[in-house]
Each structure stands twice: as C-alpha cells, then as structure tokens.
Amino acid sequence: MSDAVSPLASPFPTLPAIAGVTPRIARAGYKDWGRCDLTYVELSEGTEVAGVFTKNICCSSEVELGREQVKAGHARALIVNAGNSNAFTGYRGREAVEQIMAQVAAHLGCAPDEVFVSSTGVIGVPLPKDKAREGVARVLTEVPASWEDAARTISTTDTFPKGTTATAIVGDTKVTLSAIIKGSGMIAPNMATMLGYIFTDGAIAPAFLQELLGAATERSFNCITVDSDTSTSDTVLAFATGKAGNARIEGYDSPGADAFAAALSDVCLQLAHLVVRDGEGAQKFIEIRVTGAVSDTSARRIGLAIANSPLVKTAIAGEDANWGRVVMAVGKAGEPADRDRLAIRFGDVWVARDGLAVAGYDEAPVAAHLKGQDIRIGVDIGLGDGTATVWTCDLTHGYISINADYRS
Amino acid sequence: MSDAVSPLASPFPTLPAIAGVTPRIARAGYKDWGRCDLTYVELSEGTEVAGVFTKNICCSSEVELGREQVKAGHARALIVNAGNSNAFTGYRGREAVEQIMAQVAAHLGCAPDEVFVSSTGVIGVPLPKDKAREGVARVLTEVPASWEDAARTISTTDTFPKGTTATAIVGDTKVTLSAIIKGSGMIAPNMATMLGYIFTDGAIAPAFLQELLGAATERSFNCITVDSDTSTSDTVLAFATGKAGNARIEGYDSPGADAFAAALSDVCLQLAHLVVRDGEGAQKFIEIRVTGAVSDTSARRIGLAIANSPLVKTAIAGEDANWGRVVMAVGKAGEPADRDRLAIRFGDVWVARDGLAVAGYDEAPVAAHLKGQDIRIGVDIGLGDGTATVWTCDLTHGYISINADYRS
Fold it and tell me: Which of B253, B277, B301 is the last residue of a domain?
C-alpha cells in the first residue's frame, strides 16, 4: 500500500463473511518489507469456480495454469503472492507455482489443480521457492483474517484497500457475494496487475458461472482503462461454495438466475470502478457514455478510444471542456461515425451538435461540472442504437511522477 | 512558435530554392498575435501533385477537398492558415476554404481545384472569411519569403521550424527536393496537426509520385507517434514542378526512379523525425527496432504498441531499463509473439533473452545509454523475418504541463 491515498478513494465497506470461505494472511517476505504479502483463502469442499484472464500474450505462468484449472471448475484454495509477479521468469517461475499448488493440496487433501495461485509485483525475478514454502506453511494455520486485511495483503501500489458486496434472492434463499480487488494502473512500476476475487455462498454450475462472469466482465473490467496498458497477469476469479443452500443455478431458466446475474454484474462493476478510482495519479473519475453508434461493440470501441486518449485525459485534468479532443478521439477509433452528426456533452450540457459548437451554450454549468471529481462525458454518434459506458481517470503530473520519477 | 525550444531541436538547414516554387508569407490575424500566419506557395504551370491525409474519420473540410484535388494531380498554389484549423465547423468552414480557392485561382488564372488549402490551430471556430480574404489579397503580392520563414509561419505550438532537403540524379539531371513540416503532438491544445509539404523540381507522373509518397509514408509518418492521438487535419503534399528538365519519371522502369524514390523516402523520414524531436514535452528521442516478427506489418504493430505505451515512455523519461514494460507492450499488441523467445536490448546490450533476464548483463553501458538523448530499444520476437523501425519520444511532466496546465 502506498502512503498518499487517492483523492477518489472510498472507505472499505462492511463485507459479510461467506460460508465456506476463510481468508488468512501471513508474511512471506517476498520483498524487504514488514507487511503481510501472502494471502490464503480456504474454500470448502464442493466449491466451484470460473475465471477471466488477461489477453496479454506474454502472460505469467499463473495465468497459463489458471486458464486450464477453471476448465475443470473445482476449487479448494486461493493463494495470492504480493511483491513478486513471477512474470517473465521461464520454467523456474512455473516450478514455484507448482510447488505452492502441491503444498496446499497436501494440506487440504485435494488435487493440486484445485489450488489457484496469483502473483503480483516485480517481474523477471522467479518467485523465491524457499520463501514461498515457508510462507505457505505459516499461512495455512494462521487465524482467519478480515476481508479488509486480505484486501490490503493482495495490494501492491494501491493506495487504498478495495472490496464490495451484493446479495440476491435465489428461489427463496438469500445468496451473498463478497469480493476484493487490487490494481491501480493496468501496470505500475512494479506491475500493478488487476487481481479480483469474488466469493459467493450460492450454488451455481461452473459453466454458467463462467458465462455470467464473462458477460459481466464485458460491461465492467473490459470497460475501464487507466493508461491503455494491459498487465501480463490480470485475473478475476469467482468462487461459489454452495453453502447458502439454494437450488443450484444451472442456467438462465433456473429460479433466481437473473437476480444472481444482476448481483454478480453489480459486484464486477463496483470492483472495476474501485480500480479506476485508484488509477495512478487520478484526480478525477470519468464516465464516458456513447450512444447512437452502429452497435454496442462499436460504441465501446469509440468509448475506449476517448478514454485512452492522452489529450482527452489531460484536458479533463485541466478542467477544460475541450470537445475538439473528443471529436478527434471519435474519429481515430476506426468505427463508423459522421462528423456532421456528432453531439458531445459535458455533464448535462450539450456543447456540440450536428458537427458544430452549440452557439451560446451555457458555459457556467460546464465549468462547474469540470471542477468536480466525477466527470461525465456524453457522445452521441447519431447513426444507430449502439450504446456503451466506459470509465477512466484523468492523466496528471501524478501519473508521470509515479511512473517516471524513480529509478528501479 | 512556442518560447521554450525542445532540447531535441536541430537547427534549420540551408534549403535550396526549387525552380517554379515561390513561398510568400503574410499576417491574416487569425489569432490575436503579431506573427505571420498565412503562407502562400505559388507553383509554376504544369506542377503535379500527390498527397496523403489523416485517416481520422472526423477530418476537416480541407482534408476532404484535398483528397479529391490530388486525384486530378494538378497544382498551382498552396495556402496554409495557422491559428485556426477550421475543423468541426460544418458548411461555414467549407465555404471559407472554397472562398480561398476561388480567390487564388482568380489571381493565377487557374482552376480552383488547383489551389490546395490547409489550416491548423483552434477547432470549432469557422475560419473568418473576411480575415482570410484580406490576408490572401496581401500575401499574393508579397515579396518571396525564405523556407525558414515559411516553416515558421505554418507552425503553431512547434518550438522550432522544421525543414530538410535531398537530391537525386535522374538520368543525368540533378533533381532537388526541399520540404517543410509543422507538428509537435498528433494534436496539441490548439490542434498541432502535422502538415508537411515537399517541393521538387523533378518531373514525375502524379500517379507514380502518389505511389512513392504512399510507400515512403508507410515507413516514416506512419511509423512515428507522440501520444497515439491522430489529428483531424494531418496532411502531407508533394509538389513536382518539372523545372529540373529530367525525362519525366513515369514508373519504376524510368531512369532515376530509384534514386528519386530514395530521396523522397529520405525527406519523409527526416521530416517525420523532426516532428518527434518536437514532441510535446519530449526530452528523449526513441528508436524502436523490431525484428523476428511474422511479417513487417506485424513488426510495425508491435513497434507502435511499444511506442504508444505510457509505461514504456515514462520508463525512458525515468532513464529506467524497464524491459518488463516492453514485454507487456509486446504482449498487448495483439500480434503473434512467444514470451519464451523474446529478446530485448537497450542500446547495444541485450538485457532479456529467451523469456528471461540475461543473468549478469553489464548494467553500466545500459545506464549510460539511457542517460543520453537518443535512445534505442531493440526487440526480437524470434518467430520470423518481419522487421520495422518506429520512433517516438518520452512522456514527461512537460507533456502534462502543455496539455493540462492551461485553461482554454
């Protein structure tokens, strides 16, 4: 955890315990620091799992293994190492992961591929096997930790711990989701990978959980950007212990499937927003709403082109209603658009319409909106029914300071 | 022109006059400034032209018109307005351009579509027709200006004037190219569009000139990036007066075609480098050489993914040999790559190979290289024969200051 807390930070909420889920933390000493850096979450027998992973082709061993493990759909434990990402470390990095999987599996009496491992931190240095072995041995028998402590322990350059919760009524059973996440840039100096973990006591078939998680990801984690860079380790896992006692959700026709899907979507969106709110150097949270595109996919691409534009992000940092930069970003997105049908708003005020500045628009509410912390930009393409919302933060001197003003 | 000159600036070279080309400058007063802001280049009868334009779909009227004009291949004049880009101004912007074309055409007794117009500066404000009319009336009869004065007059946020020259022996005739360019971000606060103009006394068929210019652009202007943003007005035009007296170059089989092509390529590359050297906030010029990709196209995409990565660019600003960020950028490019075959060098020292840090590489020459102004990064993908070289600059506090620390 970093010293200076993001001005966009929100307090850690009260997260309910999830039956069948027990977090524990310890210090493996992956870096020369006093904090805990090893998180172990024990999952009761019968826990099912789904996961989404980075599309970065140079991914870590943890991601390669995780992709295979979720196919089987069974999980008994999660281990998260902080301080060393174990990425770009070849066979030695893979050996370290397999050692952890075997060690935890022996303790729990489960198969090694029911043990999920994530690592985040410096790259190019194989995770030290001796520190991992000793740390895991300790953490397995630690007293249970709070969600907030677990959220702190998986963090690296984050400036505040991040968690959220939601509930759903499935049949007549209340199902709860509690979730934690870390990440503050797509990658930071020490690879500030996004790692998110969702735990539910609901019973749900892993194939359907995977489908729901994939759909929720499209509208949450895949709709945020801090700096357009993509970590080699990004991972979101959803674990379902089934302890709530609901009739197992098998598909959309199962009772409560929609309610569960909505709760999962909500959790993913909250987690995604928390990552943006801890964006490196962020001073403002920016929502970009695109309407009127030829398709939802096209709308999202346009939204991300705007969200990734350094010139748009610096304009917002400068509290400048520079709609010309938004036009530029729409035009470079490579998606259908018509300059003379474009409309752009800041907050609730349309500043450009039909390819022209709106003559005599009221600048006072625009200026007031841009001075705030939560900025909303609207773009109507004027061609179709496609819509999307994406989120990002502004680009400030803080980002440069975090990423350039240091020596490794 | 800005006050603080880029540390990467190079002095304006001695550019030869081109027979049949006469630059003139004047002050139209598009902004409230004392400098000249209107450039007129008169071209002798029979001048042929080729051009490449921004791919930004929200392009200016000037670009829309220019694309049509180059198809005819004839040119008698170029007008460049600085201080107002006339972009996103609807029919009123287009009327202003057409007025200029008609006014110059009447003076020269040529067709309006032989008059090329570019505009650069603030957007969303139609080019004032009265100022344009009076400015054009004055500039048409001004005394000839130097190339350096013309280069200064087309500039907006540039910190130094930019020009270059080359010669080629075509048959037994010496052919000369002189060229000027402006641009310091893909777009700056006031839309620092890239506008480049190449003038030659060579005789060359416009269709073949277009082919050569397109090919040269692929390896020059399309291989540079300052901030990944694409102006709505980017334009490069090549004008050939034919006054050198060479046998007209009709295609690759014509005598001297290769020599002319090489000179044109060289001019384009020099102009492209000059734009990067004036990149907003740039402290270092970065060359990224990609080898071993599955194709040249793939290599360029990987190179641009590295060059556009804020994390790579801030690492270079921090003089940090952070090869992990280069790995990340390779992996997010969406091109074939194999983590375990990747090799990365800074300067001439390979720091990672076969997916691992090179054990015990000599850090002293790497650190010394990164302290310099001209940084070279090499990436070998290890899969094929595809190669590309791209150029960018570092991302510094200066970029944020230029683009965020102001109010419009």
Answer: B277
Residue B20 vs residues A206, A287, B239, B242, B243: alpha-carbon distances, Å:
75, 54, 10, 8, 7
Shortest Cα–Cα distance, B277 to chain A (Å)? 19
Residues B273, B274, B275, B279: is their CA dihedral positive or negative? positive
Residue of B nearest to A370 (CA): B407
Integer Cα distance of A234 and A230 in angstroms: 8
What mean pLDDT is predicted for residues A120-138? 92
What is d(CA A251, CA A249) in angstroms, rounded to the nearest whole number?
6
Torsion sign, CA atoms A211, A212, A215, A221: negative
| Distance in angstroms (rounded) separating the CA atoms of residues A270 and A164 | 7
Domain end: A214, A246, A277, which one?
A: A277
Q: What range does the domain containing B142 cover?
A: 21-277
Q: What is the pLDDT of residue A197?
A: 98
Q: Are residues A94 and A157 in the same domain?
A: yes
Q: What CATH number is attached to the domain comprising A172?
A: 3.60.70.12
For chain B, say whether A305 makes contact (Cβ under 8 Å): no
In chain B, how many domains are there?
Answer: 2
**For all residues of chain A together, what is the average pLDDT?**
92
Whether residue B299 sits in one domain with residue B215? no
Tokens representing A61 are: 């061993």
pLDDT of residue A405: 67
**Using CB atoms within 10 A of its CB, is residue A364 exposed (0-12), middle (13-18) or buried (19+)?**
exposed
